[in-house]
């Protein structure tokens, strides 16, 4: 049981490392980057040039060799601050990768602050994000009004929802999806993203994100992907993870039931773990069957589900070690409890 869990967890750690560029990268914090910016703008990055060696960059108690760069920007829309129609931003990046990034060419949303009369990155880990070209010239004339963090969030969500944004641009947004709030606006944008996604891998990633946000509308489609073995190699572990760890809405129960009959242990494990988190009495008949599943992890999750549903004194938990040692005691108790409840 623990060996299988270890390798499943390891695969997710590898996935998380890819999603976050590198373990060295600080988390993106929307409010912090907005509050610390003197200029937030949608720009066209038209040129990125290496301009020579730069002074060494202090990093975690050491000095790193660095390369200087200059990026030419053409203003598309101001969100916060003021700026000329075009400007150049100079910056330095360590020659050894530590998570710092330069500006990328194309339409980008940049976060800059003024330092000694020059624009510099607010956050060297997150200097820019993909953005869409403003829909009208009027959007460029004056700084946006209102809550800057909300405006930035909407620009981010517009990339996810757009049919025009590339899969690579959407993937860049998904690398900071942990910073997005769980709200109806966010969920709506991700639903739109699923609707326009052409690449299966991207679509499945977005479907998993909806489950993580607590929206179960895509769960029947996700369940079908797993049951028909058509989930992509890159997203299968992610979809199992979000089902098992993030689904807690009782409305998910009908979509979970087919997964409980899968011949794949990992699929049944994810589904029963979701039933544990849902902890709804309507699942008791199915959970009673899971008590005698051939997979020990499924049996453990079923026992934990019964403990949460019944909330019976003296029968909380158990932990995995306790369950492994006294498994038959727990299985028999909850099997009898389910029979008595049905009478």
Describe the overall structure.
With 343 residues, this protein is an alpha+beta fold. It folds into 2 domains: 2-10 and 200-205 and 216-342, Leucine-rich Repeat Variant (Alpha Horseshoe); 39-139. 46% of the residues lie in helices and 19% in strands. It contains 15 helices and 6 strands. The protein has helices at residues 2-19, 30-35, 138-141, 148-161, 167-174, 184-196, 200-212, 219-227, 236-246, 253-256, 265-278, 284-290, 296-310, 320-325, 327-342; strands spanning 39-59, 62-80, 86-94, 106-115, 118-121, 128-130. Strands 1, 2, 3, 4, 5 and 6 form a 6-stranded antiparallel beta sheet that branches. The longest helix has 18 residues, at 2-19. The radius of gyration is 25 Å and the shape is elongated. Residues 13-23 have low confidence and may be disordered.
Query: How would you describe the shape?
Result: elongated
Largest sheet: 6 strands, antiparallel
CATH class of the largest domain: Mainly Alpha
CATH architectural group of the largest domain: Alpha Horseshoe
**Mean residue pLDDT:** 91
Number of DSSP-assigned strands:
6
The structural class is alpha+beta
> What portion of residues belong to β-strands?
15-25%
Helicity range of the residues? Answer: 40-55%
CATH topology (fold) name of the largest domain: Leucine-rich Repeat Variant
Run of helices and strands = HHEEEEEEHHHHHHHHHHHHH
- What Rg, in angstroms, do the CA atoms define? 25 Å
What separation lies between the terminal Cα atoms? Answer: 34 Å
How many helices? The count is 15
Unreliable runs:
13-23
Number of domains: 2
């Amino acid at each position: 049981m623990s060996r299988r869990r270890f390798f499943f967890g390891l695969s997710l750690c590898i996935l998380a490392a890819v999603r976050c560029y590198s373990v060295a990268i600080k988390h993106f914090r929307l409010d912090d980057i907005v509050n610390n910016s003197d200029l937030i703008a949608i720009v066209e990055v038209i040129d990125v040039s290496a301009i020579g060696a730069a002074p060494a960059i202090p990093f975690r108690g050491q000095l790193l060799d660095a390369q200087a760069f200059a990026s030419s920007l053409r203003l598309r829309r101001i969100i916060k601050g003021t700026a000329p129609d075009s400007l150049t931003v100079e910056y330095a990046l360590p020659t050894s990768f530590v998570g710092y990034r330069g500006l990328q060419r194309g339409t980008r949303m940049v976060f800059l602050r003024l330092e000694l009369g020059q624009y510099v990155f607010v956050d060297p880990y997150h200097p820019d994000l993909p953005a869409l070209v403003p829909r009208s010239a009027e959007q460029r004339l004056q700084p946006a009004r209102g809550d800057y963090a909300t405006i930035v969030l909407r620009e981010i969500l517009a990339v996810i929802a757009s049919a025009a944004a590339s899969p690579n641009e959407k993937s860049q947004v998904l690398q900071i999806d942990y910073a997005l709030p769980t709200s109806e606006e966010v969920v709506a944008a991700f639903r739109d993203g699923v609707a326009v996604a052409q690449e299966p891998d991207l679509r499945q990633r977005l479907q998993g994100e909806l489950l993580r946000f607590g929206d179960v509308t895509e769960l029947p489609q996700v369940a079908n992907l797993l049951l028909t073995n058509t989930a992509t190699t890159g997203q299968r572990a992610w979809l199992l993870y979000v089902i098992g760890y993030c689904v807690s809405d009782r409305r998910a129960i009908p979509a979970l039931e087919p997964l409980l009959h899968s011949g794949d242990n990992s699929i049944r494990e994810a589904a029963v773990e979701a039933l544990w988190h849902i902890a709804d009495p309507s699942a008791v008949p199915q959970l009673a069957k899971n008590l005698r599943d051939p997979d020990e992890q499924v049996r453990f999750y079923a026992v934990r589900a019964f403990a949460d549903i019944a909330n019976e004194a003296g029968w909380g938990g158990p932990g995995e070690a306790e369950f492994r040692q006294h498994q038959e005691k727990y299985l028999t108790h909850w099997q009898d409890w389910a029979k008595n409840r049905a009478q």
